[in-house]
Every structure is written in C-alpha cells, then in structure tokens.
Specification:
Structural class: alpha/beta
Distance between the termini: 34 Å
Number of strands: 5
Strand order of the largest sheet: 2-1-3-4-5
Helix content: 55-70%
Length: 373
C-alpha cells in the first residue's frame, strides 16, 4: 500500500519548514566562531601603555629600547618617580610601571585587567632577567578577594546578558499579542529583576565586589534595560530573526569587545574600536572604575549605557509607529483573516485525523510565527 500524495506533500512541507529554521543555528555557529576566535584566539599587545620610572639617561635609554623593540606593541614612557607611576595606574592611564635598580620592581593594577597585568609582567620579567635580578611585582589596585581571576565582572555581564536577551524572545514572541506599551513595561520590569539577580550574584552570593554594590546594580539595570528595549522593539521588524539579531548585537559583538577577558590593547582594531562605545564595555569598565578606581571613567561608561537605553526607547518608538500603521492597513480584513486561519486549520485536521477545530490551534500558530518556531 503506497503513501498518499497528500501525506508525501505534508512531509515535504514539514521538512522544508524544519530546514528553513535550521538556518538560524547555523548562522549562530558561524557568527560565534568568527566573533570569539577573531577576538580571543591570538591576543597581542598594541600600543600598550607602560612606564619606566626615572628621569636620568639610563631610564630614557631603557624606555626607548623597549619602545623600539616592541615594534608598536608597547607605548613606553618615563615618569619622574614611583608615586607618579602609582597614580598613573590608579588613573587608568598606564598598565604597568617598571622601577629599575638593584632590586627592580614592577607596579601593576590587576583590577583593571588581569590578563593585561600578566602580559606586562611577562615583558618586564625578561627585562629584569637581563639585568640579572629577580623582579618584585606590586599590585597597587588588586581585585576583590572573591574574584581572584579578575574576570568575575565579565561573567556577571554574561549572566545579565542571557537573562535580558532570553526575556526579549519571550516578551517579543509570547507577548506579541499584547499592546506595545505593555511589552515596554514588561521589558523595564524584567530588566529590574535581572539586575537584582545580578547584584545578588556580585555581592552576597559570590562576593565579586567588596564595595560599591549599589552602583554596580544601577549600571546592571541600565545595561539590561537597554538590551530589552532594543530587542523587544526590533521584534516588530525582525520577527523570527530577532533572536539571531539580538545575539549578534549583545553576544557576538558585545562579549568580545567588553574588555572583560582581554582589553582592547590586546585585541585587533575592529574589537578595540567597538570597546569605545558598545554597551558591554560600558558596564564592565564602569563597574571596574566604580569598584576599584575611585570612580575614574565611570561618567563616560554610564553615558554609554544611557545612550544604549535611549536607542532602545527610539527603537520602541519606531516599533509603535510601525505597528499602528500595520493595524490601520489590516483592520478592514482582520476578522476575515482570522476566520480564514480557522478554516485552514480545520482543513488540515480534516485531511489528517478529522478532529474538531479549536480556537487554540489558531492562537498557537500565530505564536509560532511570532517567535519563528
């Protein structure tokens, strides 16, 4: 007994439906590989600012030698004394300061970036070895005891981002039947919940920060709200491609340019340039400045986060205009379209199991189309 033509046609349509949706994870795989490997696979210093302490000829010669030998990797300057070098590190103007002498010392600030401090230490360990002396390393701005790797803020960023862009899929998809103003309220409310969870992670649960928790929470809320507003607004335009679009913006380009693993001085020009205005970098650098560097650079980071929030407001506004225009176009035939959807579901059921048509089947199909399933 051969299969019915209707059955073959139905299977073929379903297979094409599945294959079409498999394009999204394939693009995610390609995008994640390009982003993460492009950003992290071969970190090298580029114009990494370091100081040599001293004002005499020997300090000048050492600084010039390191600068020339680095061939663009290091930006070596001299500072008059150790106190000035410490202040440069605290002001985040420098990433290491070498004090030559019989007992050479290297000053670093691991709270600014542990990986950068490691690179600087490797460079000057070799310099001290050429002088036949062991190198003493002094960390003038250490990380909190609960964050020994110095990457806790980056992983906090990951948690905040996942909570935010996953909420976009729910609000934009399952909540697509709601008025846009309600979706906006849900976005703002969910960003508050996500930021509170992040504050609990950063403070009482894992002790990633030992001071300034309220400021970290405020930046976490602004960061999360920006993602949710941008994402929910984009759903009006992108529909089933919203998840991919949000992942490109807030995972692929965001995590890799945040400076949480490697600062821009250790990355290629593309990701280094994104670091100056992307929202993940705004959160990571803002939290670092607030917790460890006495507020240095926090104003600029908060401005970056606020601008992303405003972008979200603008996108939501554009979505409101688009949806209003769409309703005006579709209103005359809206009821007829709904009846047609009911009849289509009834026809398919009659061909399959001849079951009763239910209103819920139409709603389910509408939600599937909204989330791209």
């Amino acid at each position: 007994m051969s299969a019915s033509p209707t059955g073959q046609s139905g299977t073929g349509a379903q297979l094409r439906h599945v294959l079409g949706h498999l394009l999204t994870p394939l693009l995610m795989c390609i995008g994640m590989g390009l982003a993460y490997l492009g950003a992290f696979h071969a970190p090298e210093p580029h114009n990494l600012r370091v100081d040599v302490v001293g004002s005499g000829p020997s300090a000048q010669v050492l600084a010039q030698t390191l600068h020339d030998k680095g061939d663009g990797a290091l930006d070596v300057r001299t500072v008059a004394d150790r106190a000035t070098a410490r202040q440069q590190l605290k002001d985040r103007e420098s990433y290491g300061a070498y004090v030559p002498g019989a007992k050479p010392e290297l000053l670093v600030a691991s709270a600014g970036s542990d990986t950068t401090a490691t690179v600087v230490e490797k460079v000057f360990t070799g310099v001290a070895a050429e002088q036949g002396a062991p190198l003493k390393v002094t960390d003038v701005v250490p990380v909190a005891p609960g964050d020994p790797t110095g990457q806790g803020l980056f992983f906090l960023l990951v948690a905040l981002s996942i909570g935010s862009y996953a909420s976009v899929a729910v609000i934009g998809g399952a909540g697509a039947v709601l008025a846009l103003r309600l979706r906006a309220l849900l976005a703002v409310g969910m960003s508050l919940v996500v930021s509170v969870v992040g504050a609990v992670f950063a403070g009482p649960l894992f002790h990633l920060v030992d001071q300034g928790l309220a400021g970290v929470w405020a930046m976490a809320w602004l960061y999360s709200a920006g993602i949710l507003l941008v994402g929910v607004g984009l759903h009006t335009f992108l529909k089933r491609w919203t998840t991919l679009g949000v992942m490109v913006l807030f995972v692929m380009l965001n995590f890799t340019s945040s400076g949480g693993i490697f600062r821009p001085e250790l990355q290629s020009g593309f990701f280094a340039s994104l670091h100056s205005f992307w929202n993940g970098a705004g959160f990571v650098e803002g939290a670092r400045g607030h917790v460890y560097f006495e507020g240095n650079g926090v104003g600029r980071s908060v401005l970056v986060l606020a601008l992303w929030f405003l972008v979200g407001v603008v996108v939501m506004g554009a979505a409101a205009v688009c949806e209003a225009a769409r309703r005006r176009r579709e209103h005359p035939g809206a009821h007829a379209g709904h009846v047609g959807a009911v009849e289509a579901v009834g026809s398919r059921r009659a061909e399959g199991d001849s079951g009763a048509v239910r209103e819920e089947d139409v709603v389910e199909e509408e939600l599937e189309e909204a989330v791209g399933v």
